[in-house]
Amino acid sequence: MYRIVLAPMTRCRAIDEMPNEALLKYYTQRSTPGGFLITEGSLISQTASGFPHCAGIYKEEHVEKWKKVVDAVHAKGAIIFCQLWHVGRVSHNEYQPEGGAPISSTNEAVSNKWSLLKPDDSHAHCSVPRALTIPQIFEVVNDYRQAALNAMRAGFDGVEIHGAHGYLIDQFTKEAINDRTDEYGGSLENRLRFLLQVVQAVAQAVGPANVGVRISPAIDHFDATDPNPLALGLAVVDKLNNLQIELNSRLAYLHVTQPRFTAQGTLAKTAEEALADSQLLLKIREAYDGVFVSSGGYTKELGMEDVAQGKADLVAYGRLFISNPDLVERFRANAPLNKYDRSTFYTHDPVLGFTDYPFLGQELVSNQ
User: Fold this and answer.
1) pLDDT tens across 300-325, in order?
2) 126 and 92 in contact (C-beta within 8 Å)?
3) Which of 88, 229, 282, 333 meets the CB 3.0–4.6 Å disulfide criterion with 217?
4) Is 167 a catalytic residue?
5) Is the pTM of this model over 0.90?
6) Whole-number Å distance between alpha carbons of 155 and 80
């Protein structure tokens, strides 16, 4: 297996939640023998959406559509995991069943400095959420479990639980969001309870070796901040390590986003800030007993450096993989990279900015 991973990225091309021929081509283009792909976040339930045209994994029709994509990827000799996603309060009433409130750990909305795309592609602030009751939390845990089973029936090699970037699980783990006073809020132990219940339920359903977990203790997407991200990250690692002992098996991997990464791009940081970020990730990496995947703003050189120095086992690339479907070959040949067009990241065109980036030796298409 290569050390290069296709990072999970929202692309908004799954019209009406359905994986389609455009997704099949996109993932197949980026498949290589021994390569490892993680899909875009796939919705685990009707309440999980907060972006237009994201793929689902909670209906039988979703499973059947994903099978075609997975089979095509496997035909190229690659490995593919399905990322399980619930956005929580990062949503709008228009995405929710019967126009209801999005669900979260809290009744407090995301601040108005953040916005999202509504189903009609207009921008809006996130709707006011409703805090889940404890019985409802159990139902959501089961949604993750069932989505994982669905993914395995679709032929995926495993699943990644999206516990990062300010979405539902992160809304429980981050102190700045979680204002609960029950056993799911307050102490760090309580704030991690939901994450651990999800991981345990999914691991028991499909096998620990088929489950990856993504976290972002130092990322502030959608107000998801914590006063001590290192303590948070290490606490998650401690829980996962103990769970692996309990299950007598390692998880597939732990995936952590570099603090230098944001939704708007890679942050320009001072040398001192960059060093602090690097040390935070290194401490989490050293504490975790298993395969460590790192992502966020990597160049080829930074990725090679982190792998060589033992800071990561695998490096996930996002934007560079968007514009370079043959990124693995370009890295191997030390070839120049296509530039990505940010304006097409979240459009719904099945070709433009999605599957029309050229391979090595091809001429640039006219609209690039």
Assistant:
1) 999 999 999 999 999 999 999 999 99
2) yes
3) 229
4) yes
5) yes
6) 9
